[in-house]
Amino acid sequence: MNAFECEYCSGEIRPKKVTVNHSYEGKLVIIKDVPVGVCQECGQRYYAAATLDQLDILAQNSDTAPERISVPIMVMSP
Ligand SMILES: [Zn+2]
After folding, report:
1. 66/36 Cα distance (integer angstroms)
2. C-alpha 42 – ligand 1 centre gap (Å)
3. Which of 7, 13, 17, 23 lies in the 20 to 30 Å Cα band around 40?
4. Spans of all domains in the chain
5. Distance separating alpha carbons of residues 9 and 62, to the nearest angstrom
6. CB atoms near residue 62 (< 10 Å)
7. pTM of this prediction?
């Protein structure tokens, strides 16, 4: 696989900072300014292994988050 080509659609992958909804051990945390590669065609995100490790560490320390929001939970009807 070419590192700069999307594995799903062969689109171009460009570096971008995004907001990630990350779930770790049942705790959901929103992490801003996460550096990822984003496919310009289909929007698939690519994370470096070190970035994923950091997301887990941030989630484990989410008690210290400076901001909190309340999130509505919906169920899709059949
Ligand atoms: Zn793609």
Report:
1. 23
2. 4
3. 23
4. 13-63
5. 35
6. 15
7. 0.82
CA of 57 to the centre of ligand 1 (A): 28
d(CA 13, CA 2): 10
pLDDT tens string 68-78: 999 899 999 99
- Tell me how far the alpha carbon of residue 46 lies from the centroid of ligand 1, in angstroms: 10
**What CA–CA distance (Å, rounded) separates 3 from 11?**
11
Residue 52 contacts residue 20 (beta carbons within 8 Å):
no
Integer Cα distance of 17 and 34 in angstroms: 5
Of 65 and 4, the structure prediction assigns the larger pLDDT to 65
Cα 20 to averaged position of ligand 1 atoms, centre (Å): 18
Alpha-carbon gap, residue 23 to 25, rounded angstroms: 7
